[in-house]
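Moderator note: this is an archived Q&A kept for reference. The question asked for a predicted structure of one protein chain; the sequence and the answer are reproduced below.
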Amino acid sequence: MRKYLLSILFCVLLLPPAVQAKTKYVIDYFKIMVRSQPGAEYKIIDQLPSNEKVRTVQVQGNWVKIAFKGNRTGWVLQQYLTAELPKGIRIADLEKKVIEQEKKIQSLDEENFSLKKKNVEVGQSINALSSENQSLKEEPFRILLLLAGGGIFLIGCITTLILQSMGRKKRGSGLTFDRGIGP
């Protein structure tokens, strides 16, 4: 029984530890050899370029069994894999973001220019409206002056008529027309 337990324990220890599938990348500036089994002596079944995305399936010593290009599997040295996003991919992503930000900046500059132009137009409109408002404020005073002037003129006309009519009655010497000609 003891031998039986020891043999089971020995088999369990020899089994590779279960590795949770993690996304890894081939490190920068390499083409790594994918082998059929864990070891440099085994057949090369493929080559993976830098930045290639792979999925770890199993770890055995310095070797990692990976899944790549769909359902294919093979073994690579662990030192050629990294969990970090490779610099090439990060740089490409950052360059895309820079281009997007430059487009946003250009769009905002255009919008800023348009808003400044509208601001100038609104300022001119405000100045015109302020001038018109001032003119309208002065309008009642002008109308009042016009009415006062008209009233004074009318009073002057009425006074003249009254004075003329009074002057005719006092003097009695005005032009008279006879009814006939002769003595």
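Archived answer notes: The two ends are 183 Å apart (CA to CA).
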